[in-house]
Amino acid sequence: MLRSLKFLSPRIQFVDYLETSAANILAAAKEQGLEGVIAKRRDSLYQPGRRTGAWVKYRINRGQEFVIGGYTPGPHGIDSLIVGYYRGKDFVYVARVRNGFVPALRRQVFERIRNLVSPTMPFVNLPDEHPSRWGENLTAEKMKECVWLRPEAVAQIEFLEWANTAPTCPMETSATRVLKSVRPVV
């Protein structure tokens, strides 16, 4: 009956709904490379100006392993990880990662990497003096606060988008994936 109505604006449309599990919807969205999913409870009513919890927005992140080349110290051992990847034989800085670190994970990661401390900065492209959209460039001044590591530990990092050489949005660590590994990550 509603579908028989004609609207004056093409911006108003009826959309089909899906009755399936959230896991199936997310898997389909990931397979299609979508940015995320917005859903609402079928029995909920629209309530202008109110946040009722009936609508849910789920962002789909991309993820990749990155090599940990350093960190900035913090109250639980680590404030941020400094990560990169190998381009040929060059170890290239990508970003500092702070998001996704709860205190317990900061302590756990610190225990895994504390024995990798090195006097040598391992990245070929630092200092990074180019202005960053997110303010995460690692300048010579900021580098004075860093503790450098032998690049032997790998972390699973999540991000929303990837540009030519680096993620284009803030990154966060996946909660459990910091591994020691000697294989290069490219």
User: Could you name the CATH class of the largest domain?
Assistant: Mainly Beta
Structural class of the secondary elements?
alpha+beta
Number of helices: 3
In the sheet with the most strands, the strands line up as 5-4-3-6-7
Any idea how many domains?
2
CATH level-two architecture of the largest domain: Beta Barrel
Helix content estimate: 10-25%
Structure report:
This protein is about 15% helix and about 30% strand. It has about 190 residues and is of the alpha+beta class. The protein folds into two domains: about 10-60, no CATH class; about 60-180, Nucleic acid-binding proteins (OB fold (Dihydrolipoamide Acetyltransferase, E2P), Beta Barrel), CATH 2.40.50.140. The strands form two sheets. Strands 5-4-3-6-7 form a five-stranded antiparallel beta sheet, covered by helices on one side. Strands 1-2 form a two-stranded antiparallel ribbon. It is elongated. The protein starts with about 20 loop residues before the first helix and ends in a 6-residue tail after the last strand. The model has no long low-confidence stretch (mean pLDDT about 80).
